[in-house]
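[job 4471] stage=fold_predict status=RUNNING
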Amino acid sequence: MSVHRPTGQALRCAAPELLAEALRQSRADTLAVAALYEQGPEVPRRAGLNPPRWELGHIGWFQEFWIARNPQRQLGPRADPQAPRLPARRGIADALYDSSLVPHTSRWSLPLPDAAATRDDLRRQLEATLALLDRADATDEALYFYRLALFHEDMHHEAGLYMAQALGLGLSDPRWQPAALPQPRQPLRLDAAIHRLGDPGPGFAFDNELAAHDQPLAAFEIDSRVVSWAEYLPFVEAGGYGQPHWWSEPGRRWLSEQAPAAPRYLRRAGKHWEQWLWGRWQPLDPDLPACHLNAYEAQAWCAWAGRRLPTEAEWERAALASLTSGEVFDWGAVWEWTASAFAPYPGFRPHPYQDYSAPWFDGRPVLRGASFGTQPSMHHPRYRNFFSAERNDIFAGFRSCAR
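[job 4471] inference complete, writing structure tokens
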């Protein structure tokens, strides 16, 4: 069933009534994805995966920790993250679900509540959140943690879809299916300018988006949309995965360690290509966005094609300029690797959830945009996503710029 959900800008500024409905819809989607795992295979202990019951418990714990248990929730970004918390509804919840404290590999051996008890915890937790939201002031500070909890849950929803794809689970919901790209891919030319980064406007912002500063940009040419399979596969068919000279040094190490012959979830079937999607092999539509590519694969195609990845400032300028110029800058098909490392903007100050950004300022690339698996709440032109360069389980591709 199709469910309308407001986009990121609307929800970053959402009043309590709209925010309450978004939280209910988000929880329904969370539980729908969780149901995929109940009859599926056991989730293996592997990087990028989590036990489904731990994921559910963590989502509820996070919302309760920052809202119902947080005596400073009305202060929003000014809240003291170390302020004493009220007791958890489930007494040992912190020891079970705090991702900052619970090592990833231990999550399979924790004494987690069973599925029914976990769902009951989530129901009670959401009821408490909505009751508090009903009495909350309609200010950005007072609503900050409610918005944060919504976006956190929607990030985990997409992570659940990554896991479902990795485990071969079937998924028929039309909202989470890739769609053919607009044709053709056009060059967009932008003049030299000063672009202002870190100024996301009214409402909610993640800490890594803040600290406004000017970024001088030379004139550049950027694709109007991401690269399709029709445009990526000639690199594969030309032997690109066996030609190290197209690859960066880290990319060559990845090639040596993994020995891929083609992108993840693709295979040759005679003269044609097939794609593994939601638990079955199916003919590959060449007009779909090239997906499940890591940063090394995006860089290698660009080297082969005589192109380059955009910086995140170039990407953001093109996305924002299209809102007023009438130019088509199509995004939201897949997350898009950029040439920029995830780093703090000058003047960065962490928000109370201090483990959201700061631990990951380690040189990993920034991704911009959104994907076919991203909840509409997360669609925002200034949102900065970040994954390590070798990740190809996420719904990521790229667009290119002229050199």
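[job 4471] summary: The mean pLDDT is 95.
[job 4471] exit 0
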